[in-house]
Amino acid sequence: MRVMFLAAAIVASGGAASAGPHPQAEAQALDLAEKAISLRSVHGPGNQTPQVAELYRDALVAGGFLPENVVITPVDDTAYLIARWPGSDPKLKPLVISGHMDVVEAKPADWQRDPFTPVIENGYLFGRGSTDMKLDGTLAIASLNELRREGFKPRRDIVIEFSGDEETVMKTSAIIADKLTNADLVLNIDGGGGTLDEVTGKPSYFTWEGAEKTYADFQLTVTNEGGHSSEPRRNNAIDRLATALLRIQAHQFTPEESDLTRAYFLQAANYQPADIAAAMRAFAADPTDKAAIETLSANPATVGKIGTTCVATMISGGHALNALPQRAEANVNCRIFPGHKPADILAELAAAVGDPAVTLKDVTVGSVANDASPMRPNFVAALTTSLHSVYPGVPIFPAQSSGASDSMWFRYHNVPSYGASPVFIKDSDDFSHGLNERTPIANIPPAISYYVMLLPMLSK
To answer: pLDDT digit string (tens) for 339-395?
Structure first.
């Protein structure tokens, strides 16, 4: 019945799984996803990420991976998993499939359904991690097992790895990337993806991620001698900090584009309102176009795509209601356009503040600078062929993420990494990190077919 339901779902979705079907893999992906969602893999007391790792290990071993080639390593309250399928040519660099097992906290009292009890309802899989990214992880595992059943033998090693703290400090993410610096290419299954039309529910377009902005936190601090609040003075720590923050708010980093973001604007413009579309096209043609910059800067969905952004996110100051503040601090969070170092952005902010009484310090944790991955023709060709085998003719174009993912750690080591999840979802249904997270299960059959075609092409 589960397989029949999946088959009906893919027909309803408008996809054409010409490279399938793969009923055993489809059923396994959904079963594993439900089991993984039921494990509360959240940072802190009771973290069940190690149990998710065991679930994934057992599935890989049952599918044909040698037990000694599937290693779980504990780290603090979490763990990471690295599994290797040896290829026929040990001289070739491995293909790495990258994901994570942990999820963002979810409070059951706030949800309509218990976030850690998977529910299938109205064609959706509900539960924390259904979108980010337990279903994505189990789709990849089931696809590898399917390839083994079909007798596929890779030329280069295929490594599948899952970090255990991607949603928090990324300690395991960094460890994994350090161990796999010899990778030929990383397929990040926690990035990219397809968009469904809000009205018809049919696939509209697909983006793959070839870059992401560098995350940085800068601390601003002002101190002075303070005093009695009945004797105010102009040198007030809170006032000076407030002035500094307003100067940062008014500062605009030079808008810029790359080959990747230019390609994104030209193609994504086809799916935007007229004013945004016109600004995208104008900016792609001339990144100094003032009217385009004004339009894109005023739109929260596009301001982060045209350059570095910095914004105040936390503030504290003072020590008593009736005393002048002796100390005031704020955090400014920056998302840095690829190609720039955090130290350079910090220096630019200091110049914008222009007050020697305000000290600026880089307090970033769990992030490193990373440049864009090259738009490798072999990856783009393999992706296009594989996706069009299940979604014929769907537009495909590159994108740059403003968030942080495990790709950052690989790019830091100059290993190209590409986000290319085959999951399609409506923008209105995307509740990653939010309440009532859900993903259409109609994704499962075409996703398996996509991986069964893509992975052999990338592991030649």
So the answer is: 999 999 999 999 999 999 999 999 999 899 999 999 999 999 999 999 999 999 999
d(CA 156, CA 89): 6
pLDDT 10s digits, 269-284 = 999 999 999 999 999 9
Q: Where are the beta strands (DSSP E) in 292-372?
A: 309-317, 323-324, 327-336, 359-362
What is the crossing angle of helices 23-37 and 444-458, to 10°?
A: 110
Total count of residues recorded for the chain: 460
Closest CA to 405 of 264, 260, 212, 178: 212
Outline where 166-289 has alpha helix (H). 171-179, 237-250, 259-268, 274-285
Nearest to 345 by CA among 354, 359, 335: 335
Q: What is the pTM of this model?
A: 0.90
Averaged pLDDT for residues 142-149: 98
Supply the Cα-derived Rg of the chain in whole angstroms.
Answer: 24
The answer for residues whose C-beta is within 8 angstroms of residue 333's C-beta and 6 or more apart is 215, 216, 217, 218, 310, 311, 312, 313
By the 8 A CB rule, do 374 and 416 touch? yes
What CA–CA distance (Å, rounded) separates 33 from 120?
11
Contact 399, 207 (CB under 8 A): yes
Separation of alpha carbons 277 and 292, rounded Å: 10
Report yes or no: 405 and 191 within 8 Å, Cβ to Cβ.
yes
Cβ pair 42, 102 in contact under 8 A:
yes
CA 237 to chain centre: 38
Is the preceding omega at residue 133 within 30 degrees of 0, hence cis?
yes
CA atoms within 13 A on the CB side of 451: 32
Start-to-end CA span in the chain (Å): 36
- State the residue for tokens 């595992």: 141
**Bridge partner residues of 417 (DSSP):** 186
